[in-house]
Amino acid sequence: MSRDFIIKTTSPLFLLFIEVHFAIVMHMNEHLRKLLKDAASSIHVTLEEPALGLFHGYYRELAVWNEKMNLVSVRTPEELLIKHFVDSLTPLPYITCPQGRLLDIGSGAGFPGIPLKIARPGLHVFLLEASRKKSSFLRTLIRQLSLSQTTVIHARVESAMTDSAYRHVFDVVISRAAFKLSELLKMGLFFLSPGGLLIAMKGPRGEEEKQTPRDLGLRCIACHNISLPFNGGQRKIVIFQADI
After folding, report:
1. Does a structural domain hold residue 45?
2. Is 239 exposed, middle or buried (0-12, 13-18, 19+ CB in 10 A)?
3. What is the C-alpha separation between 153 and 166, in angstroms, rounded?
4. Which secondary structure element, helix H or strand E, spans residue 39, and what is its range?
């Protein structure tokens, strides 16, 4: 039901309530947009209006699907924005191939692959997810947001690693706390192109990167400690490069 239809068919008293309701909703949307834009800026990511609009659509789809299945567990809209959207954007400054092929292993509700795609539209993003329901959500989300060059791979990692079409073809392989680092490194070797980057998004401890086998074909080139804004917590981003 549209706002114009409501205005034409309701009494003056109820109309006043509707006008206040719309004003509150718009204020909340603007508040969340400003929060997201400011929070992204604090981690050196600039979000323009088109990207903010896509994040708004993402937020709306998550709210609808979260009623049916447990995609994310958050208490407030602000927590969703900081701990999922902004957290997913933290690796963006370290992704140096603006039009490269990125594989998100264990994408779940699309983190971090979808936020990275929204913020950097030129990326060719592949979302690897074993859950049929989550894969359905991702496909619906991609269609609703009209995201080009974004593909869902509904498969277990082990199955995807038997397909030669995915072998050594990705410029970036990324995963957000979905696997132990030792497991992720072995997976990354299959998918990464020579010189490609494997980005592990870990919790604040993450000392295990120091235990990387030297003969694995990957070398640790950077480790960044990230403070999420507005008391969103601490993160660690560990970056490896495949031997050329």
Report:
1. no
2. buried
3. 11
4. helix 12-42
The pLDDT of residue 207 is 52
Pair of tokens at residue 243? 């031997």
Q: Which comes out higher in pLDDT, residue 44 or 179?
A: 44
| Structure confidence at residue 1 (pLDDT) | 47
DSSP tag of 177: S
55 part of a folded domain: no
> How far is 114 from 91, CA to CA, in rounded Å?
13
Tell me which residue range forms the domain holding 148. Answer: 80-242
Total of domains in the chain? 1
CATH of the domain at 119: 3.40.50.150
Q: 113: closest CA among 218, 185, 135?
A: 135
Query: For 35-72, how does the pLDDT look when each residue is reduced to its tens digit (9 = 90+)?
Result: 999 999 999 999 999 999 999 999 999 988 988 888 98
Q: Which helix (H) or strand (E) holds 171?
A: strand 170-176
